[in-house]
Amino acid sequence: MPEPIDSKPKMMADLGGIAIYADQVRRLVDAANELQPHDWEPANVASQKLFRCVECLRDIEVLLKSAARSRSHVKRRRKLKIMLTPLHSLAEAVRDLLNDLECNPDTACRLPQGARALMPHIRSRLLRNVAIGKGGLLSTARNKISAHIDKEFSSDEIRTLLSQAEPAQIGLWLHTCISVLADLIKLPVFFWSCDSNQDDAVRILFTEPFVVTLGLAPDGRVNRLLGVDFVPKPPRRDLLELLMRVVSNSKWMFGPKDIRISEFTEDKPGSSWARSLECLPEIGAPPSSIKLPNVSSVIPKMFGDDGWVLLIPTNVPFFTKISAKPTS
């Protein structure tokens, strides 16, 4: 067995003559940090829309931590008023991600069988619980007293509107978005890239837990598979940890009987991945006899008869749809 190259950990497996090594631990890129070339970057439309959600959640986490440390009721209310802006952006971003999962052919073709049919139901539940529609409380509060102070609003009108967006209500909007995101990140549709340290190669995470290095021809077309590395901590784990931190920092917003996320648990084998349809309240929903399909969380097989080929899907916006051959 050959020694690891480039100071990488010991060999993990062998794939058609190509050695698989453990990749370094990488983080999901943070727009507020200095550029770190080794961080995971969004590499397709779905991951770009998901990253928009991440940035909103990071802003919300900072505000929640600050509010939780304050013993002043007035200061907490001011933090929540400021938080209405990134929370509204989060709800819009989750809605846009749902639209991409349902309507973008390059994304929808990666979904497990039957999953696309659930997107309208999840979106409907999201929009019933989070008032971002025209005239909705979250939209009105964000537009009138958070993103800016409406010049025509009196102090009484500002106080009245803020009192309607009480902490438990804001918390429900937040936890609804988190419940939906916790479902969506299970789906195998998100691609991520990182620096390859080579001008003629790109590194992309198509299918967890492997990042592939693809060689580029002089014209920029992908023409060969250079290597495969095992990812010890995929970007999805960073996002899950962020969701859990935000929920933990928001506990003070709720009373003992308020609707909220109480814990995170793994899906049981054979259960539907769309747990939000089971757990979220259906606020203001009309009576319905629609029976939702029970679509299990089926992740595609890691390897097929061709060994490495499933690591390189063809539906990548910047990926030329030709076969990449492994190097000898």
Descriptive notes:
The chain is α+β, with helices and mostly antiparallel strands and 328 residues long. The chain folds into 2 domains: 8-39 and 192-232 and 301-328, no CATH class; 44-190 and 235-297, no CATH class. 39% of the residues lie in helices and 12% in strands. The protein is built from 9 helices and 8 strands. Strands 1, 2, 3, 4, 5, 6, 7 and 8 form an 8-stranded mixed sheet that branches. β6 (210-216) and β7 form a beta hairpin. The protein is elongated and about 65 Å long. The model is unreliable at 1-14, 298-310 and 314-324 (pLDDT under 50).
| Overall 3D shape | elongated
How can the largest sheet be summarized? Answer: 8 strands, mixed
Q: What is the H-and-E element order?
A: EEEHHHHHHHEEEEHHE
Radius of gyration: 22 Å
Q: Bin the helical content.
A: 25-40%
CA(first)-CA(last) distance: 16 Å
What is the number of strand segments? 8
Integer count of domains: 2
Could you list the spans in which at least 5 consecutive residues all have pLDDT below 50?
Answer: 1-14, 298-310, 314-324
- What would the average pLDDT be, to the nearest integer? 79
Number of helices: 9
Task: Bin the strand percentage.
Answer: 5-15%
State the secondary-structure class.
alpha+beta
